[in-house]
Amino acid sequence: MDTTQFEHILQRFGYKRTQAKMRILYTLYTASKPLSISEIASQVRNFDASLNTSTVYRTVHQFYKDGLLKQISSGDVAPAYELGEPFRSYEHHHLICTKCGYMESFMCEPRHTPQQIMMNSPNFASYKTHSFEVFGVCTKCS
Questions:
Q1: Could you give phi then psi for residue 92, rounded to 5 degrees?
Q2: Which helix (H) or strand (E) covers residue 18, if one does?
Q3: How does DSSP assign 52-115, residue by residue?
Q4: Mean pLDDT in each 10-residue stretch from start to end of the chain (142 residues)?
């Protein structure tokens, strides 16, 4: 994915292209795992120290609210974020250690897609996103 694709998605969602938005998206795109907001802010500020940390926090929250980012809740540890469905071409889920918070992704073919489940429910009219996490203990903690 290149920056023009980021720009097209931002435009589709009504966002202006800014250095902070592009850097946040690029940071999450190149990350090997979901990142907490403080990790995102740290990496963004390593690239450009002039970017305000509060801007990063506000932008991450707004991206999440609008469905550009997916939030991964890992129990007691601060939630982590990754690119949401507009940026992903594959489905994955997460294994999370309940002791240290270590997280890794895994691929899984769902029996029914979230969209199919929503279409079969008389109580929901639209689908935004979904999350599936498996909690356990990693080999380092066991």
A1: -145, 165
A2: none
A3: -HHHHHHHHHHHHHTTSEEEEEETTEEEEEEE-TTT-SS-EEEEEETTT--EEEEE---SS-HH
A4: 81 90 91 88 89 92 90 76 72 76 71 63 66 81 88
Nearest to 95 by CA among 134, 56, 128: 134
Residues 6 or more apart whose Cβ sits within 8 Å of residue 18? none
pLDDT at 49 (0 to 100): 85
Separation in Å, CA 127 to CA 27, 70, 97: 27, 14, 28
Class of the CATH domain delimited by 3-136: mainly alpha
* Three-class secondary structure of residue 24 per DSSP: helix
pLDDT of residue 86: 67
pLDDT of residue 24: 93
Which residues are CB-contacts of 30 (< 8 A; sequence separation ≥ 6)?
Answer: none
Quick one: pLDDT at residue 47? Answer: 86
**C-alpha–C-alpha distance, residues 98 and 112, integer Å:** 27
